[in-house]
């Protein structure tokens, strides 16, 4: 089966043209089609699916669906799992994964409990995803015009198909100040060191449309929504936006997390193939350390649901092979106080999970590769098995010399639908098990239970209670949240006017409860008339509050 | 009379500082002081009327617009003070003054209104000031925290000082150094407060803002703290020394403050001016009698800051024919201001467009910067020559090579986002 898939893909890629590139994407839906599918799901499953009651989402152009089984508590008051597809503006596979989850959860067969809600935004950066789908490439920017080269004009120097092969690929320019040199596998670049030559700059294929001496430095595409969040945001990077949460869609998502009891956010995007915990920067990775056990639990769930061979917790900067600031995932955790995860549907571990002896189709050293060239970086080497053995090396267009605007360049690089998003035919493999993982998270939502008993001696009642978290997930993050939501569980005795507390605390802060854990017993002594019950209330950041009457 | 006002406002200021709300004693003195209080301090309604009157009375120098809306939906006014005819104010170097952000600088509104009125009135009378307002622009936000003022006056009117403390500190809600873990009042995200967002968006939309200023009731203790680019430290020292103000040291421990945002994210020079006054209580506001002196200081510092803004000038071009239909033009660009056309940080952040020389009337073939007898070529983009930023008082000698018909008129325009625009005419002969 696997061999047949590989052969089919190999043949397809060997004859790739622009039209082929489009057809490679034909299994992906445009944001408008996704919106239609969501509307159809709502119409087909009115008892389980609805449009979330949060106007800023729609006002910001985001189509969303809320999935919740009928129950006593209205969905918007329940612990909520937020599922975002393609917030990076690149990962159409993430959108498809989110949509697949929505479909599965809307089905009558879905085992989603009545005490939790799942809100899905499959195309969280619709403008960027639409552009990516049309072109087969993109940096994830929305439609906001951005003057990246600060020349007073926006989007005036974008990529072009210079060599007329129907593909807009990459371009290498010899540049003494260039950051790169070719590795000994010329498909990959490595960072230049002192003495390396020739140094290269890597830009998209295209002409110097604005005649400023720089190639394609100000193309279409504006702010990357997932990088428009406040923490560690690089102020000088135009792709991060002029101000934090300057983009209405990013702000709507932030406000949603603040307004609802969001216990988890799963961002379906990326091409590393793993589940990443918060930590686009070292400081945020350190901040997340107290919750390591929780992230390990999530990794185990991922392995079980998807068979992906992830061994350990992976912080975002490790998954992405470099620090990134201003990330949505980090803000959802640090400020939103949610379990915040990035799951990349596509990646080397998915593309080619296991294979025997390799058929090496590597491009060998050609002209322009300096003496003593180094091997590719580990992150690139991870792809080589898939690229060599599944695509037969055909996903790469060899660097070809050209002269563009009087400058000697080499044009080539990866074809669309290889690394950032899989060919549509590979989507089922990329999406396999993701809905099981999401469902496991939703079903594992923390759930408070109150075990209480009371005795009476005349007018004096003695009340004892303990709180249990019957869910799999803890009642909150262990790392301190920045928005004032108490990290602990609060247990309150709700006294009537004619009830008087003689001993014990009216409101007690219990330690955070992990899944299945019960608190130590608390005791109150109350002077109370015999005809009235005593009332207890327990609450935690991620849980439905619970009230219970106890009669001595 | 003013003593009663002083007492009332002092109590009010205390209430604004999260003190437990309490009803003040309703003394006859406090009630009688209310009328006098309204004379000295603008209620929100009176502020709106006053600004409207200013714009009506001085349409050639004052424009009033809305910066945005507050949490309660009240309009936040912003004034553009400049000679409004001719070149767009957006193309001139700008000074931004932001007043009344917190309870502590509530008095800034009174100073701002006074500065606006004085600048407009004096510009009508004094040509030098009119000329200054012809080449720079002063943006003035007289009352950023309009809700605070409304609450304050409502409390005075009702005789109650029960004020709901604001959960988010506006001056901790800006992006640079925003610290949600260390500062609980920083807000759930930077610019979560509409007033802060409106001000930040205003600054981002106006790359011509060179200096941002606040008037404070006290100055922070000077800290050696953070390290900023040396050129910017020196520029701030020059800017602030004569005014007794603080520059970069004012933002050293002010994570999430407006001035920190203005410098760290937008590369604007910053200036925190202290206005010491007699204090009757721990957080008292200036008495009405004191305001006159503070107004004079506010006006003088505003004019001084406006005069310090960078100013691009172009010398008369010298044209020489170097071949058939080809010409060399020599000219000098100068920044005659006391500040560079960009801070080092702004250049590093690339928040503004670099200066350019636009040539109309001939085709630019090449250009060079002449320094120490050596000519180095400059990038040419169509009819524009790319230049670098100019330091305070710096001159650039330029040589432009063009093709054109003999006798053709030529216009050379120097354009700088923060240094303004200057032009010179010549002919190819």
Description:
The complex is a heterodimer of chains A (552) and B (429). Chain A is an alpha+beta fold and 552 residues long. Chain A has three domains: 30-134 and 221-272 and 304-311 and 320-347 and 423-443, Zn peptidases (Aminopeptidase); 153-218 and 359-415, no CATH class; 448-550, Immunoglobulins (Immunoglobulin-like), CATH 2.60.40. In chain A, 26% of the residues lie in helices and 21% in strands. Chain A has 15 helices and 22 strands. Chain A has helices at 2-14, 18-24, 31-44, 55-59, 92-106, 126-135, 248-259, 282-288, 292-306, 316-319, 328-334, 348-351, 378-390, 427-431, 434-443; strands at residues 49-50, 65-67, 80-85, 117-121, 170-174, 180-182, 189-191, 200-204, 262-268, 275-277, 314-315, 339-343, 396-404, 407-414, 448-457, 460-469, 489-494, 500-503, 507-510, 522-527, 534-539, 546-550. In chain A, strands 1-2-4-3-9-12-10-11 form an eight-stranded mixed sheet, with helices on both faces. Chain A has a four-stranded antiparallel sheet with strand order 8-5-14-13, with no helix packed on it. The longest helix of chain A has 15 residues, at 92-106. By secondary structure, chain B is an alpha+beta fold. Chain B has two domains: 2-308, Zn peptidases (Aminopeptidase, 3-Layer(aba) Sandwich); 312-427, Sandwich (Immunoglobulin-like), CATH 2.60.40.10. Chain B has a six-stranded mixed sheet with strand order 1-2-4-3-5-6, sandwiched between helices. In chain B, strands 7, 8, 9, 11, 12 and 15 form a six-stranded antiparallel sheet that branches. In chain B, helix 4 packs across helix 10. The model of chain B is unreliable at 1-27 and 30-38 (pLDDT under 50). Classes of the chains: A alpha+beta (552), B alpha+beta (429). The A-B interface holds A 147, 150-152, 210-213, 229-230, 233, 235-236, 242-246, 254, 258, 287, 331, 334-335, 480, 482-484 and B 175-176, 178, 180-181, 184, 188-191, 197, 200-201, 204, 264-265, 348-354, 379, 381-382, 386.
């Amino acid at each position: 089966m696997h061999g047949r898939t590989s052969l089919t893909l190999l043949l397809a890629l060997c004859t790739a043209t622009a039209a082929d590139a489009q057809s490679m994407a034909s299994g992906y839906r445009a944001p408008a089609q996704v919106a239609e599918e969501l509307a159809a799901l709502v119409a087909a499953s009115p008892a389980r699916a609805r449009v979330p009651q949060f106007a800023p989402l729609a006002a910001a152009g985001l189509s969303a669906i809320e999935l919740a089984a009928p129950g006593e508590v209205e969905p918007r008051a329940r612990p909520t799992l937020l599922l975002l597809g393609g917030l990076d503006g690149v990962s159409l596979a993430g959108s498809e994964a989110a949509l697949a989850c929505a479909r599965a959860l809307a089905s009558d067969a879905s085992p989603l409990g009545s005490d939790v809600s799942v809100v899905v935004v499959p195309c969280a950066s619709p403008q960027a995803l639409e552009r990516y789908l049309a072109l087969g490439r993109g940096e994830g920017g929305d439609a906001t015009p951005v003057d990246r080269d600060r020349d007073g004009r926006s989007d005036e120097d974008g990529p072009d198909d210079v060599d007329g092969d129907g593909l807009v690929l990459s371009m290498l320019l010899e540049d003494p100040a260039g950051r790169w040199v070719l590795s000994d596998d010329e498909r990959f670049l490595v960072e230049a060191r002192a003495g390396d030559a020739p140094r290269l700059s890597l830009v998209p294929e295209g002409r110097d449309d604005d005649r400023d001496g720089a190639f394609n430095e100000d193309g279409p595409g504006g702010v990357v929504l997932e990088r428009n969040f406040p923490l560690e945001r690089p102020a000088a990077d135009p792709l991060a936006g002029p101000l934090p949460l300057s983009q209405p869609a990013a702000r709507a998502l932030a406000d949603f997390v603040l307004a609802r009891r969001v216990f988890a956010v799963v961002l379906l995007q990326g091409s590393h193939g793993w589940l990443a915990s918060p930590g686009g920067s070292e400081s945020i990775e350190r901040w997340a350390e107290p919750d390591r056990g929780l992230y390990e639990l999530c990794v185990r769930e991922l392995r079980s649901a998807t068979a992906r061979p992830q061994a350990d917790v992976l912080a975002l900067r490790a998954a992405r092979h470099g620090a990134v600031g201003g990330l949505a995932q980090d803000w959802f955790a640090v400020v939103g106080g949610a379990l915040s995860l990035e799951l990349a549907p596509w990646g080397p571990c998915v593309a080619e999970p296991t294979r025997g002896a390799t058929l090496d189709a590597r491009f060998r050293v050609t002209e322009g590769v300096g003496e003593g060239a180094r091997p590719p970086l580990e992150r690139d080497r991870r792809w080589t098995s898939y690229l060599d053995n599944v695509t037969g090396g055909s996903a790469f267009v060899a660097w070809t010399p050209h002269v563009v605007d009087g400058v000697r360049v080499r044009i080539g690089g990866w074809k669309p639908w290889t690394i950032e998003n899989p060919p549509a035919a590979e989507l089922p493999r990329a999406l396999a098990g993701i809905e099981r993982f999401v469902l496991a998270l939703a079903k594992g939502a923390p759930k408070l239970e109150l075990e209480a008993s009371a005795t009476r001696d005349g007018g004096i009642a003695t009340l004892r209670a303990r709180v249990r978290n019957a869910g799999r997930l803890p009642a909150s993050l262990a790392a301190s949240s920045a928005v004032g939501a108490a990290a602990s569980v609060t247990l309150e005795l709700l006294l009537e006017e004619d009830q008087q507390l003689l001993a014990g605390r009216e409101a007690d802060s219990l330690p955070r409860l992990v899944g299945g854990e019960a608190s130590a017993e608390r005791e109150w002594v109350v002077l109370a008339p015999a005809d009235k019950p005593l009332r207890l209330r327990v609450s935690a950041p991620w849980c439905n509050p619970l009230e219970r009457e106890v009669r001595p | 009379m003013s003593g009663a006002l002083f007492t009332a406002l002092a109590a009010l200021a205390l209430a604004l500082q999260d003190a437990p709300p309490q009803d003040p004693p309703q003394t006859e003195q406090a009630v009688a002081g209310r009328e006098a209080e309204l004379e000295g301090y603008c209620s929100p309604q009176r502020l709106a009327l006053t600004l409207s009157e200013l714009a009506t009375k001085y349409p050639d120098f004052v424009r009033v617009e809305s910066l945005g809306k507050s949490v309660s939906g009240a309009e936040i006014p912003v004034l553009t003070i400049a000679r409004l005819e001719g070149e767009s104010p957006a193309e001139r170097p700008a000074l931004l003054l932001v007043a009344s952000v917190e309870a502590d600088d509530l008095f800034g509104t009174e100073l701002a209104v006074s500065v606006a009125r004085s600048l407009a009135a004096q510009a009508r009378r004094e040509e030098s000031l009119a000329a200054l307002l012809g080449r720079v622009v002063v943006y003035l936000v007289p009352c950023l925290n309009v809700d605070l003022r409304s609450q304050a006056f409502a409390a005075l009117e009702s005789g109650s000082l029960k004020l709901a403390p604001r959960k988010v500190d506006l001056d901790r809600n800006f992006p640079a150094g925003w610290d949600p873990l260390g500062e609980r009042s920083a807000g759930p995200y930077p610019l979560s407060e509409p007033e802060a967002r409106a001000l930040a968006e205003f600054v981002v939309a106006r790359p011509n803002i060179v200096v941002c200023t606040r008037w404070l009731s006290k100055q922070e203790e000077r800290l050696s703290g953070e390290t900023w680019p040396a050129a910017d430290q020196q520029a701030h020292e020059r800017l602030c020394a004569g005014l007794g103000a603080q520059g970069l040291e004012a933002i050293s421990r002010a994570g999430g403050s407006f001035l920190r945002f203005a410098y760290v994210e937008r590369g604007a020079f910053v200036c925190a001016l202290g206005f010491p006054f007699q204090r009757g209580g721990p957080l008292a506001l200036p008495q009405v009698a004191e305001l006159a002196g503070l107004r004079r200081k506010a006006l003088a510092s505003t004019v001084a800051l406006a005069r310090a803004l960078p100013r691009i000038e172009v010398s008369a071009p010298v044209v020489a024919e170097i071949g058939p239909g080809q010409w060399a033009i020599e000219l000098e660009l100068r920044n005659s201001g006391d500040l560079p056309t960009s801070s080092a940080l702004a250049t590093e952040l690339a928040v503004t467009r670099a200066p350019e020389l636009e040539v109309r009337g001939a085709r630019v073939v090449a250009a060079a910067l002449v320094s120490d007898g050596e000519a180095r070529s400059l990038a040419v983009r169509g009819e524009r020559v790319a230049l670098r930023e100019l330091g305070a008082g710096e001159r650039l000698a330029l040589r432009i090579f063009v093709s054109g018909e003999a006798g053709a008129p030529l216009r050379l325009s120097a354009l700088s986002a923060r240094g303004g625009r200057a032009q010179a005419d010549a002919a190819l002969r």
